[in-house]
Design goal:
Largest sheet: 5 strands, mixed
Structural class: alpha+beta
Radius of gyration: 18 Å
Mean pLDDT: 89
Strand order of the largest sheet: 2-1-5-3-4
Helix content: 55-70%
Order of helices and strands: EEHEEEHHEEHH
Oligomer: single chain
Number of helices: 5
Low-confidence stretches: none
Distance between the termini: 45 Å
């Protein structure tokens, strides 16, 4: 039985033939129901609000009874809203990064790798959001800076570190993964949290 879908409180009919996971259902919903430029502001599944980058986006469609979506038609306001929530998410992720590093150093590869997957999912969602911010911004965000760090520099640094972590994970070099998490990823997330208010301000400035 397909899940019941509502968009802004109204029931929506979406053909989910061939869809196996929540992420696919949301993608089909976006293409079939939303107007051009309309974006999802919040997603509630089985009565539970999902944060951006939640690993539950991979939930099998058979486990989903309800999907509730609210939308916004102004992409800039939507992106600012997501950036604010992502900033909060990054603040909760930072302690988890350090904990994952400790677990990996203790030799608990299976537990540490499970934690790592969640961290990488969150960072990937964040990099996608950064791309969205660049696409909707009416001004170039590249030169925005905070504490000597520019938007472009932080973006390049995060993508580079993400690749290093994934390469180390693929080769099962858990000591390297732990070092990258603690000494590179965690500080990078803190730097992004510092610059996000300036990004939000710049986006809203271009919206006026």
């Amino acid at each position: 039985m397909e899940p019941e879908i509502t968009v802004n409180g109204a029931k929506a009919v979406v053909d989910l033939t061939g869809v196996t996971h929540l992420a696919g259902a949301v993608d089909k919903l976006s293409k079939a129901v939303l107007a051009p430029g309309e974006l999802i502001a919040s997603l509630t599944v089985n009565g539970e609000y999902l944060e951006p980058g939640s690993p539950k986006a991979a939930a099998p469609i058979g486990q989903i009874k309800t999907i509730e979506v609210t939308t916004i038609k102004n992409p800039i306001e939507m992106t600012v809203s997501l950036l604010k929530r992502m900033g909060e998410y990054l603040s909760t992720m930072s302690p988890g990064v350090g904990k994952a590093a400790d677990v990996l150093r203790l030799g608990s590869a299976e537990e540490g790798n499970a934690m790592l997957v969640k961290i990488l999912d969150g960072i990937t969602a964040f990099t996608d959001l950064i791309e969205t911010a660049k696409s909707v911004a009416r001004n170039d965000l590249g030169n925005l800076s905070s504490k000597g760090q520019t938007f472009t520099g932080l973006e390049e640094r995060l993508l580079s570190m993400l690749k290093k972590v994934m390469d180390a994970q693929e080769s099962s070099d858990w000591v390297m993964v732990a070092d990258l998490l603690e000494y590179e990823i965690a500080p990078a997330l803190d730097d992004w949290r510092n610059i996000l208010p300036a990004v939000e301000s710049e986006l809203l400035k271009g919206n006026n």
